[in-house]
Amino acid sequence: MDVYTKELDLNWARTQLDTPAEGNKRWGKNFGFDYYYPLVSRSPQIKEILNLIKKVAKSNASILIQGETGTGKELIASLIQFISLRSDKPFIKVNCAALPETLLESELFGHEKGAFTGAYQTRIGKFEQAHEGTLFLDEIGDMHMSTQAKILRVLQDHEFTRVGGNRTISADVRIITATNKDLWVEIENGGFREDLYYRLNVVTIHVPPLRDRREDIPLIAEFFRRKFTSELRKNTKGFTEDAMLLLKNHTWHGNIRELKNLVERAVLIVEEGQMITPDDLALTGKDYFAAGGRDRRRTEQEASSGLPTLKLDELEKDAIQKALEVSKWIQKDAAKLLGISPRSLNYKIKYHNITHSSWKKNI
Mean pLDDT highest for which of 130-134, 292-296, 326-330? Predict the structure, then answer.
């Protein structure tokens, strides 16, 4: 039994949460790492966050989650909802940065038929959908001032009207917000309402960047390795000591999202039945050496002394063949995995003289 067995045991994690009965019934579904990572984290900061979540989740208090992009703010919001007394009610998510002001207002409050050009029918907004449940407003710092004023009214009066409508609609909604911006700076610059800030900031949770909780990197990396190994139906054996050292020492400007993408690529590239090595990780030379990598430096030294090195053409051909194997030799799927167009892949297949029995002769 390996060191991660208990940490990645969903049933064990369930027993550590004081969840409502409905929440325990729904635990059988595939909630994934989101709902129990804070339970098994080895980071003192994440443990403090979990203790705070347990204290405030069952209230109706508004919660503001702050942290860099990719740190897992939505993960924290989902856990709060799961523990809360509203766990069996709707949990509606809105990315405020993804929509322009005019569309965001309609998205949040809905609109009546004929309210504007293209409004061919009445639409129910997110506040109505979240009635008696929770509304998660991600990237709240990007919301326009006029929309902020309407959010403030809902928080104060618990009611709103649809765009183009006159009827007042009640809203029993708990608000959880998240941002990667410093809202005080936004307030000073005139980009965020101070009164709304105090309404949202009843409880503040600061999610630390991944570089400040390096003790959790092996656990998170192992979870993603297992996840993508299962999805790709590929047998991998874990990380070598050198590969894990690189992961622990990397700066992770993209935080958990960057780690997820890196592990997915490594699982794709690694040989069947082998451990993930530094060569399987998509770290640039600068990042590689900064994280303590040594093999590539030795390779460069050997190259300068006239010793043979691996050619780029060989690396490219090997990556293409592995992507084709994973994609069952379907070129469009392999191109998607490699991040290139099918046309480019077709050209490279011809260039490297790669063939397969399932392809037509003219490929």
Answer: 130-134
| CATH code that applies to domain 10-208 | 3.40.50.300
Residue 324's identity, in one-letter code, is: L
Judge whether 220 and 262 are in contact, CB under 8 Å. no
Whether the pLDDT of residue 218 is over 60: the answer is yes
pTM over 0.70: yes
- 274 — alpha (psi -120 to 50), left (phi > 0) or beta? beta
Beta strands in the chain (DSSP E): 63-66, 91-95, 134-138, 159-161, 168-170, 174-179, 203-206
DSSP string, 10-39: HHHHHTTS---HHHHHHTTS---GGGTHHH
Strand 174-179 and strand 134-138: pairing? parallel
* Backbone dihedral angles phi then psi of residue 169, each to the nearest 5 degrees: -120, 130
Burial class (CB in 10 A: 0-12, 13-18, 19+), 230: exposed
- Looking at residue 66, what DSSP letter applies? E
Q: What is the DSSP letter of 118?
A: T
SS3 206: strand
pLDDT band at 28; cut points 50, 70, 90: very low
Higher per-residue pLDDT: 220 or 359 = 220
For residue 160, which of 175, 170, 147 has the smallest C-alpha distance?
170
Q: Token pair for residue 189?
A: 């610059």
The tens digit of pLDDT for each residue in 241-263 reads: 999 998 998 889 999 999 999 99
Cα separation of 191 and 173, whole Å?
25
The CA-based angle 50-51-56, given to 5 degrees, is 95
Distance CA 65, CA 142 (A): 14
Could you tell me which CATH number the domain at 213-309 has? 1.10.8.60
CATH 3.40.50.300 in the chain, residues? 10-208
Structurally, what CATH architecture does the domain formed by 311-363 represent? Orthogonal Bundle (1.10)
